[in-house]
Amino acid sequence: MSADRYPLLAHDGPERIVAWRPTGPVSAHRFLSDVQRLAELFPAGGNVLNVCQDRYRFMVGFAACIVAGKVSLLPASQTPEAIRRLKEYAADVFCLHDGGSENLDLPKLAFPELPDGAIESSPGIDADRVVAVLFTSGSTGTPTAHIKKWGALAASSRGEAERLDAAGAGYSLVGTVPVQHSYGLESIIMLTLQGRGSLWSGWPFYPADIAAALAAVPRPRLLVTTPVHLRTLLDAGIDLPAVDKLLSATAPLSELLAREAEDRLRAPVHEIYGCTETGQLASRRTVEGPRWSPLPGVRLEQEGDATFALGGNCGVRHALADVIELHDDDTFSLHGRNADMVNIAGKRTSLAYLNHLLTDIPGVADGCFLIPDEANGSSVTRLCAFVVAPTLSPTQLRDALRQRIDPIFLPRPTIFVDRLPRNATGKLPRNDLVALLDRHNRGAE
Amino acid sequence: MTQTTPGDLTALMHEVAAMIVTSLNLEMSPAEITPDTQLFGDGLGLDSIDILEVALAVSKHYGFQLRADDEQNTKIFTSLRTLVEHIAANRTK
User: Fold this and answer.
1) Which of A60, A104, A408, B34 has the fewest CB within 10 Å, making it most exposed?
2) pLDDT tens digits, residue range A312-331?
3) B23, B52, B77: which to substitute to probe chain A, counting the most A Cβ within 10 Å?
4) For the structural domain made of B6-90, what CATH number should be given?
5) What is the ipTM of this complex?
Protein backbone atom coordinates (compact mmCIF):
# COMPACT_ATOMS: atom_id res chain seq x y z
CA MET A 1 0.00 0.00 0.00
CA SER A 2 1.34 3.45 -0.75
CA ALA A 3 0.30 6.95 0.17
CA ASP A 4 -0.57 9.65 -2.40
CA ARG A 5 1.73 12.14 -0.75
CA TYR A 6 4.72 12.00 1.56
CA PRO A 7 6.07 15.02 3.43
CA LEU A 8 9.44 16.27 2.23
CA LEU A 9 10.72 15.89 5.76
CA ALA A 10 9.47 13.27 8.23
CA HIS A 11 10.80 15.01 11.34
CA ASP A 12 8.10 15.48 13.94
CA GLY A 13 8.86 19.02 15.03
CA PRO A 14 10.37 22.20 13.55
CA GLU A 15 13.07 22.24 16.23
CA ARG A 16 14.31 18.77 15.32
CA ILE A 17 17.84 18.74 13.89
CA VAL A 18 18.34 17.68 10.25
CA ALA A 19 22.05 18.42 9.85
CA TRP A 20 25.25 19.11 11.73
CA ARG A 21 27.68 21.57 10.20
CA PRO A 22 31.02 22.80 11.50
CA THR A 23 29.13 26.01 12.39
CA GLY A 24 26.51 24.12 14.41
CA PRO A 25 23.22 22.25 14.08
CA VAL A 26 20.54 23.06 11.47
CA SER A 27 16.91 22.73 12.55
CA ALA A 28 14.05 21.45 10.41
CA HIS A 29 12.50 24.92 10.09
CA ARG A 30 15.76 26.48 8.95
CA PHE A 31 16.22 23.66 6.43
CA LEU A 32 12.71 24.14 5.02
CA SER A 33 13.38 27.87 4.71
CA ASP A 34 16.68 27.24 2.88
CA VAL A 35 14.91 24.83 0.52
CA GLN A 36 12.22 27.40 -0.32
CA ARG A 37 14.69 30.26 -0.82
CA LEU A 38 16.96 28.19 -3.07
CA ALA A 39 13.99 26.97 -5.12
CA GLU A 40 13.06 30.61 -5.79
CA LEU A 41 16.54 31.31 -7.17
CA PHE A 42 16.61 28.42 -9.65
CA PRO A 43 16.83 29.24 -13.36
CA ALA A 44 14.24 27.90 -15.81
CA GLY A 45 15.76 24.51 -16.74
CA GLY A 46 13.87 21.45 -15.57
CA ASN A 47 16.91 19.23 -14.93
CA VAL A 48 19.69 19.73 -12.42
CA LEU A 49 23.12 18.19 -11.90
CA ASN A 50 23.76 18.75 -8.20
CA VAL A 51 27.49 18.36 -7.48
CA CYS A 52 27.57 20.09 -4.09
CA GLN A 53 30.33 18.58 -1.96
CA ASP A 54 28.82 19.73 1.33
CA ARG A 55 26.10 17.21 2.18
CA TYR A 56 23.82 19.77 3.74
CA ARG A 57 23.96 21.90 0.58
CA PHE A 58 23.41 18.81 -1.56
CA MET A 59 20.35 17.92 0.50
CA VAL A 60 18.96 21.48 0.28
CA GLY A 61 19.55 21.39 -3.50
CA PHE A 62 17.92 17.99 -3.88
CA ALA A 63 14.89 19.09 -1.83
CA ALA A 64 14.64 22.47 -3.60
CA CYS A 65 14.47 20.62 -6.94
CA ILE A 66 11.61 18.53 -5.58
CA VAL A 67 9.75 21.60 -4.34
CA ALA A 68 10.39 23.47 -7.62
CA GLY A 69 9.26 20.55 -9.78
CA LYS A 70 12.74 19.91 -11.17
CA VAL A 71 14.51 16.59 -11.60
CA SER A 72 17.92 15.77 -10.09
CA LEU A 73 20.09 13.94 -12.62
CA LEU A 74 22.70 11.60 -11.14
CA PRO A 75 25.14 10.36 -13.80
CA ALA A 76 27.46 7.45 -13.08
CA SER A 77 30.51 9.68 -13.48
CA GLN A 78 31.51 13.22 -14.38
CA THR A 79 33.91 12.55 -17.23
CA PRO A 80 33.61 14.93 -20.23
CA GLU A 81 31.96 12.06 -22.14
CA ALA A 82 29.38 11.49 -19.37
CA ILE A 83 28.53 15.21 -19.26
CA ARG A 84 28.10 15.27 -23.06
CA ARG A 85 25.69 12.33 -22.77
CA LEU A 86 23.84 14.08 -19.97
CA LYS A 87 23.24 17.11 -22.21
CA GLU A 88 21.93 14.80 -24.91
CA TYR A 89 19.48 13.40 -22.37
CA ALA A 90 18.35 16.79 -21.08
CA ALA A 91 19.38 19.87 -23.06
CA ASP A 92 18.22 22.24 -20.29
CA VAL A 93 20.38 20.73 -17.54
CA PHE A 94 22.23 23.16 -15.27
CA CYS A 95 24.76 22.48 -12.56
CA LEU A 96 24.30 23.39 -8.89
CA HIS A 97 27.70 23.49 -7.21
CA ASP A 98 29.60 24.79 -4.22
CA GLY A 99 33.02 25.14 -5.88
CA GLY A 100 35.25 22.80 -7.82
CA SER A 101 33.06 22.36 -10.89
CA GLU A 102 35.32 24.28 -13.30
CA ASN A 103 35.73 21.27 -15.57
CA LEU A 104 32.02 20.69 -16.10
CA ASP A 105 30.82 22.08 -19.42
CA LEU A 106 27.36 23.17 -18.20
CA PRO A 107 25.52 26.35 -17.20
CA LYS A 108 26.12 26.81 -13.48
CA LEU A 109 24.44 28.09 -10.36
CA ALA A 110 26.73 28.56 -7.36
CA PHE A 111 25.07 27.60 -4.10
CA PRO A 112 24.18 31.02 -2.63
CA GLU A 113 24.40 32.38 0.90
CA LEU A 114 20.86 31.96 2.23
CA PRO A 115 19.42 34.38 4.80
CA ASP A 116 18.05 33.31 8.17
CA GLY A 117 14.50 32.07 7.98
CA ALA A 118 12.03 29.57 9.34
CA ILE A 119 9.23 27.58 7.77
CA GLU A 120 7.27 25.50 10.25
CA SER A 121 5.60 22.73 8.33
CA SER A 122 6.96 20.43 5.68
CA PRO A 123 5.38 20.51 2.22
CA GLY A 124 3.70 17.31 1.04
CA ILE A 125 5.02 15.91 -2.24
CA ASP A 126 2.96 13.86 -4.69
CA ALA A 127 4.07 10.24 -4.72
CA ASP A 128 3.92 10.24 -8.54
CA ARG A 129 6.39 13.08 -8.96
CA VAL A 130 9.64 12.12 -10.73
CA VAL A 131 12.37 13.56 -8.52
CA ALA A 132 15.56 11.85 -9.67
CA VAL A 133 17.06 10.03 -12.62
CA LEU A 134 20.00 7.76 -11.86
CA PHE A 135 22.16 6.57 -14.74
CA THR A 136 23.99 3.31 -15.22
CA SER A 137 26.36 2.73 -18.10
CA GLY A 138 24.58 0.71 -20.77
CA SER A 139 26.53 -1.89 -22.71
CA THR A 140 26.55 0.14 -25.95
CA GLY A 141 27.75 3.43 -24.54
CA THR A 142 24.39 5.11 -24.11
CA PRO A 143 23.73 5.48 -20.38
CA THR A 144 20.52 3.88 -19.15
CA ALA A 145 18.21 6.19 -17.21
CA HIS A 146 16.44 4.90 -14.10
CA ILE A 147 13.54 7.11 -13.09
CA LYS A 148 12.82 7.51 -9.39
CA LYS A 149 9.46 8.76 -8.19
CA TRP A 150 9.11 10.46 -4.83
CA GLY A 151 6.63 7.95 -3.41
CA ALA A 152 8.78 4.91 -4.17
CA LEU A 153 11.97 6.58 -2.88
CA ALA A 154 10.27 7.79 0.29
CA ALA A 155 8.55 4.47 1.03
CA SER A 156 11.79 2.58 0.45
CA SER A 157 13.73 4.81 2.83
CA ARG A 158 11.01 4.57 5.46
CA GLY A 159 11.35 0.79 5.18
CA GLU A 160 15.11 1.09 5.63
CA ALA A 161 14.63 3.31 8.68
CA GLU A 162 12.17 0.82 10.14
CA ARG A 163 14.76 -1.93 9.72
CA LEU A 164 17.79 -0.03 11.01
CA ASP A 165 16.17 2.17 13.61
CA ALA A 166 13.19 0.26 14.93
CA ALA A 167 13.05 2.46 18.01
CA GLY A 168 12.81 5.62 15.88
CA ALA A 169 15.71 7.27 17.71
CA GLY A 170 16.86 9.19 14.63
CA TYR A 171 20.52 8.58 13.86
CA SER A 172 23.25 11.09 13.30
CA LEU A 173 24.59 9.98 9.93
CA VAL A 174 28.24 10.15 8.93
CA GLY A 175 28.87 8.92 5.39
CA THR A 176 32.11 8.03 3.62
CA VAL A 177 30.40 7.49 0.25
CA PRO A 178 29.31 10.01 -2.39
CA VAL A 179 25.69 11.12 -2.11
CA GLN A 180 25.48 11.44 -5.91
CA HIS A 181 25.12 7.68 -6.30
CA SER A 182 22.34 5.28 -5.40
CA TYR A 183 23.68 4.04 -2.05
CA GLY A 184 24.58 7.45 -0.65
CA LEU A 185 21.41 9.06 -1.95
CA GLU A 186 19.28 6.45 -0.19
CA SER A 187 21.26 5.75 2.95
CA ILE A 188 22.46 9.28 3.70
CA ILE A 189 20.11 11.81 2.08
CA MET A 190 16.79 9.92 2.00
CA LEU A 191 17.44 8.27 5.36
CA THR A 192 17.90 11.75 6.82
CA LEU A 193 14.77 13.16 5.17
CA GLN A 194 12.48 10.16 5.72
CA GLY A 195 14.11 8.38 8.68
CA ARG A 196 14.16 11.46 10.94
CA GLY A 197 17.93 11.43 10.83
CA SER A 198 20.45 14.23 10.89
CA LEU A 199 23.47 14.20 8.61
CA TRP A 200 27.03 15.39 9.09
CA SER A 201 27.60 17.96 6.34
CA GLY A 202 31.18 16.94 5.61
CA TRP A 203 32.50 14.10 3.50
CA PRO A 204 35.13 12.49 5.72
CA PHE A 205 37.87 10.83 3.73
CA TYR A 206 40.84 9.73 5.82
CA PRO A 207 40.39 7.59 8.94
CA ALA A 208 41.24 10.60 11.13
CA ASP A 209 38.51 12.61 9.36
CA ILE A 210 35.96 9.88 10.05
CA ALA A 211 36.90 9.93 13.73
CA ALA A 212 36.54 13.71 13.85
CA ALA A 213 33.18 13.64 12.03
CA LEU A 214 31.81 11.05 14.45
CA ALA A 215 32.99 13.12 17.39
CA ALA A 216 31.20 16.18 15.96
CA VAL A 217 27.72 14.64 16.08
CA PRO A 218 25.70 13.28 19.04
CA ARG A 219 24.76 9.63 19.53
CA PRO A 220 23.18 7.47 18.32
CA ARG A 221 25.64 7.51 15.40
CA LEU A 222 25.32 5.60 12.13
CA LEU A 223 28.42 5.26 9.95
CA VAL A 224 27.46 4.74 6.29
CA THR A 225 30.45 3.19 4.57
CA THR A 226 31.88 0.48 2.28
CA PRO A 227 34.19 -2.51 2.79
CA VAL A 228 37.17 -0.55 1.42
CA HIS A 229 36.69 2.40 3.75
CA LEU A 230 35.99 0.11 6.70
CA ARG A 231 39.21 -1.84 6.01
CA THR A 232 41.37 1.32 5.99
CA LEU A 233 39.56 2.69 9.04
CA LEU A 234 40.39 -0.43 11.06
CA ASP A 235 43.95 -0.67 9.69
CA ALA A 236 44.72 2.91 10.72
CA GLY A 237 44.58 1.75 14.34
CA ILE A 238 43.32 5.08 15.69
CA ASP A 239 40.88 5.64 18.56
CA LEU A 240 37.33 6.12 17.37
CA PRO A 241 34.39 7.72 19.15
CA ALA A 242 31.51 5.38 19.99
CA VAL A 243 29.52 4.24 16.94
CA ASP A 244 26.04 2.76 17.37
CA LYS A 245 25.60 1.09 14.00
CA LEU A 246 27.50 0.64 10.76
CA LEU A 247 26.09 0.23 7.30
CA SER A 248 28.04 -1.23 4.40
CA ALA A 249 27.17 -1.64 0.73
CA THR A 250 28.58 -1.51 -2.82
CA ALA A 251 30.67 -4.67 -2.51
CA PRO A 252 30.40 -7.90 -0.55
CA LEU A 253 31.63 -7.50 3.02
CA SER A 254 33.57 -10.47 4.28
CA GLU A 255 32.36 -12.05 7.49
CA LEU A 256 35.91 -11.73 8.82
CA LEU A 257 36.01 -7.96 8.31
CA ALA A 258 32.48 -7.58 9.68
CA ARG A 259 33.46 -9.50 12.82
CA GLU A 260 36.63 -7.48 13.30
CA ALA A 261 34.62 -4.26 12.92
CA GLU A 262 31.98 -5.41 15.41
CA ASP A 263 34.65 -6.44 17.94
CA ARG A 264 36.65 -3.25 17.62
CA LEU A 265 33.76 -0.78 17.41
CA ARG A 266 31.33 -2.73 19.61
CA ALA A 267 28.45 -1.98 17.23
CA PRO A 268 26.46 -4.11 14.80
CA VAL A 269 27.47 -4.00 11.13
CA HIS A 270 24.62 -4.26 8.65
CA GLU A 271 24.90 -4.72 4.90
CA ILE A 272 22.50 -3.45 2.28
CA TYR A 273 21.81 -5.34 -0.94
CA GLY A 274 20.39 -3.56 -3.95
CA CYS A 275 21.24 -1.98 -7.26
CA THR A 276 20.76 1.37 -8.94
CA GLU A 277 17.74 0.10 -10.89
CA THR A 278 15.75 -1.08 -7.86
CA GLY A 279 17.37 0.75 -5.00
CA GLN A 280 17.95 -1.05 -1.71
CA LEU A 281 16.17 -4.38 -1.43
CA ALA A 282 17.41 -6.27 1.59
CA SER A 283 19.72 -6.17 4.56
CA ARG A 284 21.58 -8.56 6.80
CA ARG A 285 23.79 -8.39 9.84
CA THR A 286 26.86 -9.93 8.23
CA VAL A 287 28.13 -11.83 11.28
CA GLU A 288 24.80 -13.62 11.66
CA GLY A 289 25.23 -15.55 8.44
CA PRO A 290 24.58 -15.40 4.71
CA ARG A 291 20.81 -14.91 4.70
CA TRP A 292 19.34 -11.57 3.60
CA SER A 293 15.97 -10.23 4.77
CA PRO A 294 14.02 -8.14 2.26
CA LEU A 295 13.28 -4.63 3.49
CA PRO A 296 9.65 -3.86 4.38
CA GLY A 297 7.59 -3.65 1.19
CA VAL A 298 10.04 -5.65 -0.95
CA ARG A 299 9.24 -9.09 -2.37
CA LEU A 300 11.33 -11.42 -4.52
CA GLU A 301 9.87 -13.88 -7.05
CA GLN A 302 11.46 -16.52 -9.22
CA GLU A 303 10.68 -17.84 -12.67
CA GLY A 304 13.12 -20.51 -13.76
CA ASP A 305 16.61 -19.22 -13.03
CA ALA A 306 15.61 -15.58 -13.01
CA THR A 307 14.78 -13.60 -9.88
CA PHE A 308 12.56 -10.52 -9.91
CA ALA A 309 12.22 -7.83 -7.28
CA LEU A 310 8.97 -6.05 -6.54
CA GLY A 311 8.90 -2.95 -4.40
CA GLY A 312 12.17 -1.17 -3.75
CA ASN A 313 12.32 2.30 -5.19
CA CYS A 314 11.79 1.46 -8.86
CA GLY A 315 8.08 0.83 -8.47
CA VAL A 316 7.98 -1.93 -11.09
CA ARG A 317 8.95 -5.59 -11.27
CA HIS A 318 12.65 -5.79 -12.09
CA ALA A 319 14.83 -8.74 -13.09
CA LEU A 320 17.92 -9.04 -10.87
CA ALA A 321 21.30 -9.86 -12.36
CA ASP A 322 22.44 -11.97 -9.40
CA VAL A 323 22.05 -15.66 -8.76
CA ILE A 324 19.65 -15.92 -5.82
CA GLU A 325 18.26 -18.77 -3.73
CA LEU A 326 14.94 -18.06 -2.00
CA HIS A 327 14.24 -19.68 1.37
CA ASP A 328 10.90 -20.59 2.95
CA ASP A 329 11.17 -17.95 5.65
CA ASP A 330 11.26 -15.10 3.06
CA THR A 331 15.02 -14.71 3.41
CA PHE A 332 17.40 -15.39 0.53
CA SER A 333 21.03 -16.21 -0.21
CA LEU A 334 23.20 -14.61 -2.87
CA HIS A 335 25.20 -17.06 -4.96
CA GLY A 336 27.50 -14.91 -7.01
CA ARG A 337 27.11 -11.68 -8.79
CA ASN A 338 26.59 -11.14 -12.48
CA ALA A 339 29.96 -11.76 -14.15
CA ASP A 340 29.56 -8.71 -16.38
CA MET A 341 29.11 -6.25 -13.54
CA VAL A 342 32.03 -4.23 -12.24
CA ASN A 343 31.78 -2.51 -8.89
CA ILE A 344 34.81 -0.76 -7.48
CA ALA A 345 34.57 1.38 -4.39
CA GLY A 346 30.89 2.01 -4.93
CA LYS A 347 31.08 2.95 -8.60
CA ARG A 348 29.45 0.57 -10.99
CA THR A 349 29.78 -0.19 -14.64
CA SER A 350 29.74 -3.21 -16.92
CA LEU A 351 32.57 -4.99 -18.67
CA ALA A 352 30.59 -4.74 -21.90
CA TYR A 353 30.54 -0.96 -21.62
CA LEU A 354 34.23 -0.71 -20.75
CA ASN A 355 35.08 -2.99 -23.67
CA HIS A 356 33.00 -0.81 -25.93
CA LEU A 357 34.87 2.33 -24.81
CA LEU A 358 38.23 0.63 -25.24
CA THR A 359 37.66 -0.75 -28.72
CA ASP A 360 36.11 2.57 -29.80
CA ILE A 361 39.47 4.33 -29.39
CA PRO A 362 41.06 5.08 -32.80
CA GLY A 363 44.06 2.77 -33.21
CA VAL A 364 42.69 -0.01 -30.99
CA ALA A 365 42.12 -3.06 -33.19
CA ASP A 366 40.84 -5.27 -30.40
CA GLY A 367 40.76 -5.22 -26.66
CA CYS A 368 38.98 -6.31 -23.53
CA PHE A 369 38.88 -5.79 -19.79
CA LEU A 370 39.24 -8.50 -17.16
CA ILE A 371 38.30 -8.53 -13.47
CA PRO A 372 41.19 -10.47 -11.96
CA ASP A 373 40.59 -12.94 -9.15
CA GLU A 374 40.71 -11.36 -5.71
CA ALA A 375 44.27 -10.28 -5.07
CA ASN A 376 45.75 -11.57 -1.83
CA GLY A 377 45.73 -9.04 0.94
CA SER A 378 44.80 -6.15 -1.30
CA SER A 379 41.59 -4.43 -0.29
CA VAL A 380 40.57 -3.32 -3.78
CA THR A 381 40.30 -5.29 -6.97
CA ARG A 382 41.74 -3.46 -9.94
CA LEU A 383 40.79 -4.12 -13.51
CA CYS A 384 43.28 -5.11 -16.13
CA ALA A 385 42.97 -4.78 -19.88
CA PHE A 386 44.39 -6.52 -22.94
CA VAL A 387 44.86 -4.37 -26.00
CA VAL A 388 45.80 -4.95 -29.62
CA ALA A 389 46.98 -1.51 -30.74
CA PRO A 390 50.19 -1.72 -32.76
CA THR A 391 50.27 2.00 -33.62
CA LEU A 392 49.59 3.37 -30.14
CA SER A 393 52.06 4.00 -27.35
CA PRO A 394 51.04 3.13 -23.79
CA THR A 395 50.88 6.86 -23.03
CA GLN A 396 48.61 7.60 -26.00
CA LEU A 397 46.29 4.77 -25.00
CA ARG A 398 46.23 5.87 -21.37
CA ASP A 399 45.37 9.46 -22.33
CA ALA A 400 42.55 8.24 -24.60
CA LEU A 401 41.15 6.05 -21.82
CA ARG A 402 41.20 8.93 -19.35
CA GLN A 403 38.95 10.95 -21.62
CA ARG A 404 36.38 8.19 -21.58
CA ILE A 405 36.60 6.21 -18.36
CA ASP A 406 36.20 7.09 -14.70
CA PRO A 407 39.67 6.92 -13.09
CA ILE A 408 38.61 4.14 -10.76
CA PHE A 409 38.09 1.80 -13.75
CA LEU A 410 41.34 2.60 -15.53
CA PRO A 411 43.13 -0.70 -16.16
CA ARG A 412 46.17 -1.54 -14.10
CA PRO A 413 47.95 -3.19 -15.80
CA THR A 414 47.25 -2.58 -19.47
CA ILE A 415 48.84 -5.39 -21.41
CA PHE A 416 49.66 -4.95 -25.10
CA VAL A 417 49.30 -8.19 -27.04
CA ASP A 418 49.50 -9.22 -30.70
CA ARG A 419 46.06 -10.79 -30.56
CA LEU A 420 43.41 -11.77 -28.04
CA PRO A 421 42.75 -15.45 -27.26
CA ARG A 422 39.39 -15.48 -29.03
CA ASN A 423 37.84 -18.91 -29.51
CA ALA A 424 36.15 -20.22 -32.64
CA THR A 425 32.97 -18.29 -31.93
CA GLY A 426 34.88 -15.08 -31.32
CA LYS A 427 34.28 -15.19 -27.59
CA LEU A 428 36.94 -14.62 -24.98
CA PRO A 429 36.75 -17.37 -22.34
CA ARG A 430 37.61 -15.91 -18.95
CA ASN A 431 39.97 -18.80 -18.14
CA ASP A 432 42.09 -17.98 -21.18
CA LEU A 433 42.31 -14.34 -20.18
CA VAL A 434 43.28 -15.27 -16.62
CA ALA A 435 45.99 -17.56 -18.04
CA LEU A 436 47.24 -14.72 -20.26
CA LEU A 437 47.43 -12.43 -17.22
CA ASP A 438 49.31 -15.09 -15.26
CA ARG A 439 51.84 -15.45 -18.06
CA HIS A 440 52.26 -11.68 -18.18
CA ASN A 441 52.75 -11.47 -14.40
CA ARG A 442 55.29 -14.28 -14.38
CA GLY A 443 57.15 -12.67 -17.28
CA ALA A 444 57.28 -9.38 -15.39
CA GLU A 445 58.97 -10.91 -12.37
CA MET B 1 60.99 17.93 15.28
CA THR B 2 64.42 17.97 13.67
CA GLN B 3 65.63 20.33 10.98
CA THR B 4 65.24 18.85 7.49
CA THR B 5 68.07 19.43 5.04
CA PRO B 6 67.69 19.33 1.24
CA GLY B 7 69.68 16.10 1.28
CA ASP B 8 67.19 14.53 3.69
CA LEU B 9 64.36 15.61 1.39
CA THR B 10 65.96 13.89 -1.59
CA ALA B 11 66.38 10.70 0.40
CA LEU B 12 62.78 10.97 1.56
CA MET B 13 61.64 11.43 -2.07
CA HIS B 14 63.20 8.09 -2.99
CA GLU B 15 61.71 6.42 0.06
CA VAL B 16 58.18 7.76 -0.56
CA ALA B 17 58.32 7.02 -4.30
CA ALA B 18 59.20 3.43 -3.46
CA MET B 19 56.38 3.31 -0.91
CA ILE B 20 53.85 4.54 -3.51
CA VAL B 21 54.97 1.97 -6.09
CA THR B 22 54.87 -0.86 -3.54
CA SER B 23 51.61 -0.03 -1.83
CA LEU B 24 49.76 0.47 -5.15
CA ASN B 25 51.48 -2.25 -7.20
CA LEU B 26 52.27 0.28 -9.89
CA GLU B 27 53.89 -0.94 -13.09
CA MET B 28 56.90 1.30 -12.87
CA SER B 29 60.12 1.79 -11.00
CA PRO B 30 60.25 4.40 -8.21
CA ALA B 31 62.88 6.31 -10.20
CA GLU B 32 60.28 7.08 -12.85
CA ILE B 33 58.34 9.22 -10.37
CA THR B 34 60.09 12.57 -10.50
CA PRO B 35 59.58 15.16 -7.75
CA ASP B 36 57.14 17.09 -9.96
CA THR B 37 55.20 14.19 -11.42
CA GLN B 38 51.51 14.90 -10.81
CA LEU B 39 49.99 12.20 -8.65
CA PHE B 40 46.47 12.68 -10.04
CA GLY B 41 45.40 13.24 -13.64
CA ASP B 42 48.03 13.27 -16.35
CA GLY B 43 50.85 12.04 -14.14
CA LEU B 44 50.33 8.83 -12.20
CA GLY B 45 46.55 9.03 -12.52
CA LEU B 46 45.89 8.01 -8.93
CA ASP B 47 42.32 7.97 -7.65
CA SER B 48 40.73 8.35 -4.24
CA ILE B 49 41.16 4.70 -3.26
CA ASP B 50 44.89 4.96 -4.08
CA ILE B 51 45.15 8.04 -1.92
CA LEU B 52 43.61 6.13 1.00
CA GLU B 53 46.16 3.34 0.51
CA VAL B 54 49.07 5.78 0.35
CA ALA B 55 47.74 7.66 3.39
CA LEU B 56 47.62 4.41 5.33
CA ALA B 57 51.22 3.62 4.38
CA VAL B 58 52.25 7.17 5.33
CA SER B 59 50.62 6.86 8.76
CA LYS B 60 52.39 3.54 9.42
CA HIS B 61 55.82 4.72 8.26
CA TYR B 62 55.86 8.26 9.54
CA GLY B 63 53.53 8.17 12.53
CA PHE B 64 50.89 10.79 11.72
CA GLN B 65 47.38 10.83 10.29
CA LEU B 66 46.44 12.80 7.18
CA ARG B 67 43.34 14.99 7.35
CA ALA B 68 41.14 16.06 4.44
CA ASP B 69 39.47 18.98 6.20
CA ASP B 70 42.90 20.56 6.11
CA GLU B 71 42.75 23.21 3.35
CA GLN B 72 46.13 21.91 2.32
CA ASN B 73 44.78 18.48 1.43
CA THR B 74 44.44 18.88 -2.32
CA LYS B 75 47.88 20.50 -2.40
CA ILE B 76 49.49 17.67 -0.43
CA PHE B 77 48.78 15.13 -3.16
CA THR B 78 49.68 17.43 -6.05
CA SER B 79 53.10 15.88 -6.63
CA LEU B 80 55.70 13.71 -4.98
CA ARG B 81 57.45 16.89 -3.82
CA THR B 82 54.37 18.34 -2.07
CA LEU B 83 53.62 15.03 -0.40
CA VAL B 84 57.20 14.64 0.81
CA GLU B 85 57.28 18.21 2.14
CA HIS B 86 54.10 17.50 4.08
CA ILE B 87 55.58 14.30 5.48
CA ALA B 88 58.81 16.06 6.45
CA ALA B 89 56.85 18.73 8.32
CA ASN B 90 54.53 16.35 10.16
CA ARG B 91 56.38 13.08 10.73
CA THR B 92 56.79 11.82 14.24
CA LYS B 93 59.05 8.94 13.34
Assistant:
1) B34
2) 777 778 888 888 899 999 99
3) B52
4) 1.10.1200.10
5) 0.80
